[in-house]
Amino acid sequence: MPSPYRALFAVPGARGFTVAGLLGRMPLSMMGIGVVTMISQVTGRYGLAGALSATMALSAAALGPQISRLVDRHGQRRVLRPATLCALTASTGLLLTTRLDGPDWLLFLCSAGIGCVPSVGAMTRARWALVYRGRPELHTAYAFESVVDEICFVFGPIISIGLSTVWFPEAGPSLAACFLAAGVFWLTSQRATEPPPHPRGHHTGGSALRSAGLQVLVATFVATGAIFGAVDVVTVAFADEEGHKGAASLVLAVYAAGSCAAGAVFGLLSFAGAPARRWALGICAMAVSMIPLLLVGNLPFLAVALFVAGLSIAPTMITTMALVELHVPRAKLTEGMTWVSTGLAVGVALGSSVSGWVIDTAGARAGYGVPVAAGAVAVAVGFLGYRRLSRPVPQREGAHEQGSEQEERHLA
């Protein structure tokens, strides 16, 4: 590992919360695609599979920011454990309903309950922000977190789809639930690196989403999430049409590998220009990289096209988190980061649902038109809101300075 990354772990406890965060984030890439694989195998209905995946994403979009807001006020341990128990109960219900051939309405109810799953990535990034706030190492830490995200997306689909197709349909989502339980309960047991809660008085001004800059980021990432959701569902269907459904996990892993490689390199670089400009370029690159998918004729070509498309993902996500810090008050940082994930979740829901309908109607190849259209929307929204992002809001310390001093004493 390059020395700038190795130096991050000089802080006591960093290795522990990183590994726990990796485990807790595995369901991010395993559960949705696992449910799509499970339902399509059991029922053969890609429309239903995409709708259930969309329901999970929409529920997470509605509940995630509220859970993170509670975390900012009460701490990670007090909030994450009960939220995770709720998500685990719902996932158990979904698997049992599928196994026992239960009604569709119960599948949707259980899928909605899985939305209680906390944003583990936001929790680990908040810990890095506590350690390295205001220092160059924070850029490297965010890059490392993006690499961890992509590691999950490299191995998560392989494990989930592989288990569900080779062993039994419910195997992938079942293991995802186990990873969630292990990761969250291990993370919340590490109290030394947990950001201290901010008193209620630090949360004036309402939700973090009132920030104009954050609104632009979230709106753009709704369209970006539609790209991700559509690519996942359409790739599974395309591989199925080609007679190699199990290969979908490998193709999606190549997609994530491109992002992982780009994120690792991006974290080693230093930038002097405005982050908003880099962010806009990243959004444009993601949109343009979707166009070759319309020309795919076989799985090897699809894998190459998705690897190239993945190169723009992690750098854009890293820059996004830097912009969140510039536009959101410190006391609402976890909530602000979760709103970005929420935008992605809403987009994943839309992309999964629309692409599932297109696949059932016109076939998998036509489904790749969905991420192309979503990329165009992302570019349009990004450019319309660019002026807001290019004018960061001065950090409103005032009432927060006391909280900052408490954080420093807590870390010491």
Automatic annotation (TrEMBL):
<feature type="domain" description="Major facilitator superfamily (MFS) profile">
    <location>
        <begin position="213"/>
        <end position="412"/>
    </location>
</feature>
<dbReference type="InterPro" id="IPR011701">
    <property type="entry name" value="MFS"/>
</dbReference>
<feature type="transmembrane region" description="Helical">
    <location>
        <begin position="214"/>
        <end position="238"/>
    </location>
</feature>
<feature type="transmembrane region" description="Helical">
    <location>
        <begin position="250"/>
        <end position="272"/>
    </location>
</feature>
<feature type="transmembrane region" description="Helical">
    <location>
        <begin position="105"/>
        <end position="126"/>
    </location>
</feature>
<protein>
    <submittedName>
        <fullName>MFS transporter</fullName>
    </submittedName>
</protein>
<keyword id="KW-0812">Transmembrane</keyword>
<feature type="transmembrane region" description="Helical">
    <location>
        <begin position="365"/>
        <end position="386"/>
    </location>
</feature>
<keyword id="KW-1133">Transmembrane helix</keyword>
<feature type="transmembrane region" description="Helical">
    <location>
        <begin position="336"/>
        <end position="359"/>
    </location>
</feature>
<feature type="transmembrane region" description="Helical">
    <location>
        <begin position="279"/>
        <end position="295"/>
    </location>
</feature>
<dbReference type="GO" id="GO:0005886">
    <property type="term" value="C:plasma membrane"/>
</dbReference>
<dbReference type="GO" id="GO:0022857">
    <property type="term" value="F:transmembrane transporter activity"/>
</dbReference>
<keyword id="KW-0472">Membrane</keyword>
<dbReference type="Pfam" id="PF07690">
    <property type="entry name" value="MFS_1"/>
</dbReference>
<dbReference type="InterPro" id="IPR036259">
    <property type="entry name" value="MFS_trans_sf"/>
</dbReference>
<dbReference type="InterPro" id="IPR020846">
    <property type="entry name" value="MFS_dom"/>
</dbReference>
<feature type="transmembrane region" description="Helical">
    <location>
        <begin position="301"/>
        <end position="324"/>
    </location>
</feature>
